[in-house]
Amino acid sequence: MAVQSYIKIKGGLKLKGEVKVSGAKNSVLPLLFSSLISEGEHHFKNIPDLKDLHLALKLLSSLGLSHKKLKQELIIQNRQKLTGDPCPKSVQSFRASILCLGPLMDIGKTVKIPLPGGCDIGARPIDLHIESLNKMGAKICIKKSHIVAIAPKNKLKACQLKLKFPSVGATENLIMACVLAKGTSFLENIACEPEILDLIRYLNKMGAKIEQLKKRKLKITGVKKLLTLKQAYPVIPDRIEAGTWLIAGACVRGQITVKKCETKHLKSLFEKLKLIGFDVKWNSSTALLKPGSQHKSINVKTGVYPAFPTDLQSQFIALMTSLKGTSSLLETIFENRFRYVEQLNRLGAGIQFENPSKILVKGPVLLKSNKLMATDLRAGAGLVLAGLMTPGTSEVYGLHHIERGYENFVPKLKSLGADIQLCSSKSKLYK
Ligand code: EPZ
Question: What is the mean pLDDT of residues 397-408?
Answer without folding.
Answer: 92
